[in-house]
Model the fold of this input.
Amino acid sequence: MNRQAVRGWLMYDWANSAFATTIMAAVMPIFYKTVAGSDLPGNTAENYWGYTQTVAMIFVAVLSPIMGAIADYSGSKVRFLTAFAIIGALATMCMGFIGHGDWLLASTLVVLGTIGFAAGNTFYDGLLTEIAPPEKRDAISSKGYALGYLGGGLLLAVNLVMIKGWDKLGFPGETIATQMAFVTVGIWWLVFTIPIVRHVKEQAKGKAVSFGDAVKSGFMRIGRTMKTASRYPELLKYMAAFWFFNDGINTVIVMATIYGSGIGIGTSDLIIALLITQFVGYPSTLLFIKLAARFGTKRSLNGSLVIYVVIVILGFFMTNAIHFYILAFMVGLVQGGSQAIARSLYANLVPPSRTAEFFGFLSLSSKFSSVAGPLVFSVVGTITGSSRLAILSLVAFFIVGIAILAFVDLEKGRKEALTGEVN
Done:
């Protein structure tokens, strides 16, 4: 195992987690409601934010599996990761131009940034099997998420200082300071992508082909993946569980802050709460390494999903900043660990020679399913006029995910991945 390659891989989580914290979770949702969507009535801004996430996920769902198949065929996961990182970072820096009433521009740039973030992660996840043997993947995957929490939290803290201390730092106003915070996220993302580009080398070099042939091959491999997926029944069951609980987790991430803003919690309290999530998430994600080793990965994942059910129910009754702080602490305990374990479990269930393709296939299926969470939130909010009922609807995603996960046999799934045969 090349330690320099592992460190380079880990640093990409540090790099792009700034987008997840400042843009997806903390600052942009509030900015979208109070600045970009300041002219929108009632809870329309919250609903439009949900629809923005839905559109972004549709684009990612279409692009990721095609790119993953092409990357496997040509041995170019690192190059595709780099391309999408650049797209996402540039879109993020352009968010510095969003002003009052520019909700359509904000939505467009958030969609582009999310495409760069999510599509890049498809190749990043696929590289896990390139840098680590199966017995090390749980630990390295968890360390990646932990480092992401630390990096994302660090820049979010800097952004909070910029926004709330705008006058002391020489900014003309809070809006300008916030716009500059978005620019710092794009720069951070680009700079810390350099280590993975320099140090991670793919073992399988693939074939030297034209772009047209690669695209054709990509579509053919997607079709083959769909046809041969039935040879991996445990993987299919796990994917079905993943579709539901991952959708629930992602919707909590992207809707929590704008939900809090909609029920009257102040900007400072919302961002501080997200900082709590980040810095609690760092040690908690590392703790999941020990929990998974002691109690098993499946049991640890199940435990985290049960806690999410409690979080969503408590979120329905939330009325003040203290409540939001408590829920942010609880999310920090389980968010990174659940995602890290889910990623490493999937990596161990896919055929080793087709990792980017299968991660792309997961992205296709999970991103289409991930349309459901923000869409359900927005539709329920639109019909009822209540964001509280919208947040409560997310309980169903976790319950169904837990129920399906109970039927997944991980040992049998690992054997199927290695042999391609159903035992």
